[in-house]
């Protein structure tokens, strides 16, 4: 998701802190269908009716905030914000017609709309959960505080709306007059609306200057709560057509629908590479004495020797990896996707990885590690933001039949299992990786080699698929970010590249692989659903989707994070 500079005050800080929530709005069926230009008119009419009630709630909140503001300039600024909303309400019918739509019929309000409007009304009236505000706002400071709280509850809605519509506008052809929602999108991307959103944030910054740390914490909670209510508001919009999101809803467990999720571990799930962590365990732990005072059965090098050896192994690995990439990418680029050429190139990586592992075994750096130390290190591993939460939601989702498989070059499956133990039942997580050979809970220095190359990963991937029930609808998603994941990414129904590995992209493009941001890919897929008439996933040969966070994957597969 792209960035947006909204200043350095509290409004800008809060937007930067909670901006990741925007993906859960962007990936709603409402916005994906709207961006694709095929959102049904009835769904749009339903949204417009709900939105009018939100606008009335904003106008009322501004009215109460104006009464609370102490400074005349602040009162005037809030009054102008209220006038903007009131003008929008007066011109709303003509705007809807200008966008090319009929006025919506009277409808009932959704629970999400009611919750949102109640939240705005309560905040502007000084009824804030966990905050002591007198029944009568006696002092000017008490009133100003409530005005700031109100602006804190309103600000994220406008910023989120401006941000998401700019994300969508970037996908549209400016010369395409056939997109029925283009005028609506352009309206919320206008300089006029952007200026309105900025004025709210600017006023929030002004009203917050004199607040205490605790009161600023209240604004943060209100801001975040408003973001979540906005997510719920758009997630609750009814969609009458087939939609490609969330992916879990396209699979019907009643007819055997099953989702198989595969992912790499190092630097896909985690923030650090596990090989360096295992080496660090070896370096910082000392041989422990037995009760009789003798040294452990498997003596190891000194920490200094281990550090020196590991540094040399790491430097050699990096140098040879870069040489391998360079030797492949200096050849002529493929004009179209070349699977055969890619497989031939990846054979070089297979030889390289196996040779590197053999050097590690011969060096002895993995000799004498205690299994309990490894498990403790696994429990402390730092994961990518959102990864564990996503795994937990998948495992606890009773409406989805899903299996999770981790395919990794990691030298130690126990490290992975220990790291993932806090995410749920480890038995439900299928870990496929190498293992460290042990005697009496201490590593011998040998690696039990199972996955050392892209081809071996692909073989493990296919073996898992061949062993599943053939009946029913099956979908496979592979999530990875390294060269070793390329073949699995291409083989899965949906291949998602995590992060922005320049090496993976460079190698992929060398053999004609296209990398498409997931959101724009979903918008294109949504158009395809209507135009071609199918909602199941067909792989576009040589096309992979890219994401920058696990929140995007969560939003795509499961929908709202709430």
Describe the model.
- This protein has a 7-stranded parallel sheet with strand order 4-3-1-7-8-10-9, with helices on both faces.
- The protein starts with 9 loop residues before the first helix and ends in a 5-residue tail after the last helix.
- It folds into 2 domains: 10-240, Up-down Bundle (Heme Oxygenase, Chain A), CATH 1.20.910; 258-272 and 320-363 and 384-440 and 447-558, Rossmann fold (3-Layer(aba) Sandwich), CATH 3.40.50.1000.
- With 562 residues, it is α/β, with parallel strands linked by helices.
- The radius of gyration is 28 Å and the shape is globular.
- Mean pLDDT is 90; it is low at 288-298.
- Helix 4 packs parallel to helix 7, helix 4 runs antiparallel to helix 8 (140-169) and helix 5 runs antiparallel to helix 10.
- The protein contains 22 helices and 10 strands.
- InterPro entries: HAD-like_sf, HAD_sf, Haem_Oase-like_multi-hlx, Thiaminase-2/PQQC, Thiamine_Salvage_TenA.
- Pfam families: TENA_THI-4 (PF03070).
- It comes from Gossypium mustelinum.
- This is Thiaminase-2/PQQC domain-containing protein.
- Residues 29-125, 149-236 form the Thiaminase-2/PQQC domain.
Name its key features:
562 residues, alpha/beta, Heme Oxygenase, Chain A, Rossmann fold, 2 domains, seven-stranded parallel beta sheet, three-stranded antiparallel beta sheet, globular
